[in-house]
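Intended use. Records like the one below are meant for learning the mapping from a protein sequence to its folded structure. Do not use them to infer anything beyond what is encoded.
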Amino acid sequence: MKKAIVLFFLVVTFTYGQELALVRDNDKMGYINTLGEMTITPQFEKAGDFSQGYAAAFQNDKWGFINTSGDWVIQPMYDRVKAFNSGYALVLKDDRWNYIDPSGTVLTTPVKEKYYDFEQGVALYRVEGKIGLIDTAGKIILEPTYDEIKPFVEGHARAKKDEKWGMITKVGTVFIPTTYDEIGDYNNNAVWARKGESFGVISGGNFVIISNVDKIWDFSNNSSLTYARKDKKIGFITPKGTWAIEAKYDKAREFNNGLAPVSIGKKWGYINEKGEQIIPFDFVDAEIFSADGLAPVKEKKLWGFIDKAGTMVIPAQYDITAGGFSIFSKDNLKGFKNGRARVKYKKEWGFINTKGEVLGKWYQNVENFSE
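Structure written out for the chain above:
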């Protein structure tokens, strides 16, 4: 039995790895690779992003799944489908939902009410209004005891019981007791929370209240600092609940690559983690820097890209509004990722590289790359 499980995960692991982007061309859906080359000809009325090597596609009024070569691995036979996650996808046929693996085999579970997507190896399990967890073997790992469980982040999820929030792990153990009125998503730096009117951070098991704060944003892995609001102004705090940068900005976004976009009035610029202005407040709007060292900035109505010196290296001639038509897309990034940015030029969408060169051609719409 153990060998069979190992073999299954090897199959899942090695069937994906190629990044493809969903595109719409002449009202049909197809896929391009990271060079902008068409690898799956637009032929589908509807389709979804790739996830774990498979993408949902719609043909003859039914949904099935294709692989990165465009071949059907599960024939179109379902009325509705969701993306593969943790080795399984939810599918609806004959008014019944089930979990299937890439071979189409149905997973046996105790679920009798609502079906939830698998995520990080677990799925929510509801009985009479209470929520627990099942694993990818279809076994109960947490009896339904919570009123609500939010999506898992790095193996931890916010959980609500008796009108109070805490946090659990994906094996069902309590990470933070349900004693808070609000709580943020997990991050290994710290987690923000609220008790009554008091906001603060939970770090090392202690709740540290920060005076006069009325909102805190989630910590991220890009910096040890996050932003918080005090007296209608925004600054940055540490995981210990101390102010690293005083609250004096009207808006802010998270630090990445050592810089954060902040605004004073209607103008945006960038500061470093010492609170020093690095790039002047010259922009109508601004997004975070990517690992590629470029950030989207808005001049008048259009967006371009600057480097960390503040030099406009790609002219402001694009729209970068997040979104798209994919029924599965949850991570519509603004700006560059792995050397590519999804942009709109005039009325068409496509990708550019860090030199501003178009990858392939422009389309009716495109989604971010996925695998």
